[in-house]
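sry for the spam today, last one i promise. struct tokens for design, 358 residues
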């Protein structure tokens, strides 16, 4: 795989706080909690989602949490399509007209996004913005757009029409109406920046949760045990977990068709849009969880392989030694790649791990 670098919360929620015995509590105002049993925590609202930060047994935890918030704010200001003066918003506003100068960080992330687009054969496409804006899923959309509108927006989606100028550090969209949306990579990218920072300042025990779907673990629990990450059952009415995955210094990321959606005439229309059809993917997958690799890898691939479908997605992940995947299907069958065998503890008898015969 080519790499140049390493609201509604998801129903398949990675329930870290419930599984790791945290006794400190953050709050939505962004204030840090008082230390308890070595824990200092903070809850923020960034990237249109809730971010939970937990650092253990670190004398400089308060300062580190302030630095992490600055990292999140910087990334948001660079790549959010919803902040009018962000770098990516400026690129989108100039689509089909002029190239826009961006920071080195944004330029590098855009290059990385194009690498992923090539490697996934367009299953991940950073130019998906026109379709996202059309469907408005999770942002007021309540019925499918007209077919003609979908086709018109789909014509604006092609990562090959993103023009990069290495010398001048500019980005240009070839067609007016094109729009970059880095929502499928942004949280993972931010998580990797946080992980790098925490390692540089020698934090030995921490867990960072971006929106419930992206979690990075730093070291182990203060007791020396692995973090036990619970995967919540996607049927909210059941209110119970699906599985437990132990992690140390690893990343886990989940994309599911029930994260953001609307119902129309008995059909669920979710936010994971297939660039090739211009509509939400419909392939029998409820969710994909990626374990390992960088957070950027996991963020991109959890979406890309869900769009690919079970067979193609399993084959794609199996060829990469850095990451593993768990596929949860509509019929409650669970498929896991070879590297996760024996590591995922299913706790809900409604779900069954089955062998992939393809």
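last one done:
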């Amino acid at each position: 795989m080519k790499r140049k670098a390493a609201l509604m919360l998801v129903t398949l929620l990675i329930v870290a706080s419930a599984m790791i015995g945290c006794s400190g509590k953050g709050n939505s105002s962004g204030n840090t909690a008082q230390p308890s049993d070595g824990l200092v925590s903070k809850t923020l609202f960034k990237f249109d989602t809730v971010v939970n930060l937990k650092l253990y047994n670190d004398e400089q935890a308060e300062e580190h949490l302030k630095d992490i918030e600055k990292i999140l704010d910087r990334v948001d200001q660079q790549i959010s399509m919803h902040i009018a003066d962000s770098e990516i918003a400026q690129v989108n506003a100039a689509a089909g007209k002029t190239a826009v100068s961006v920071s080195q960080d944004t330029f590098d992330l855009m290059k990385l996004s194009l690498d992923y687009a090539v490697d996934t054969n367009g299953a991940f496409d950073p130019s998906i913005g026109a379709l996202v804006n059309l469907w408005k899923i999770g942002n007021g959309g309540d019925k499918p757009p007209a077919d003609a509108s979908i086709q018109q927006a789909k014509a604006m989606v092609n990562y090959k029409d993103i023009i990069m100028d290495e010398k001048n550090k500019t980005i240009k969209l070839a067609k007016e109406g094109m729009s970059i949306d880095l929502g499928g990579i942004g949280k993972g990218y931010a998580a990797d920046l946080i992980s790098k920072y925490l390692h540089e300042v020698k934090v030995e025990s921490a867990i960072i949760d971006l929106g419930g779907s992206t979690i990075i673990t730093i070291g182990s629990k203060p007791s020396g045990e692995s973090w036990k990450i619970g995967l919540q059952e996607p049927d909210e009415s059941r209110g119970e977990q699906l599985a437990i995955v132990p992690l140390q210094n690893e990343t886990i990321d989940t994309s599911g068709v029930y994260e953001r959606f609307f119902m129309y005439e008995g059909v669920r229309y979710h936010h994971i849009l297939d660039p090739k059809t211009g509509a939400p993917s419909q392939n029998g997958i409820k969710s994909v969880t990626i374990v390992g690799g960088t957070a950027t890898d996991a963020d991109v691939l959890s979406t890309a392989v869900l769009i690919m479908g079970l067979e193609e997605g399993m084959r794609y992940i199996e060829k990469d030694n850095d990451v593993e995947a768990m596929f949860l299907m509509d019929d409650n069958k669970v498929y896991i790649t070879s590297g996760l065998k024996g590591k995922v503890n299913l706790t809900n008898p409604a779900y069954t791990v089955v062998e992939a015969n393809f």
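The chain has a mean pLDDT of 89. ok im logging off now
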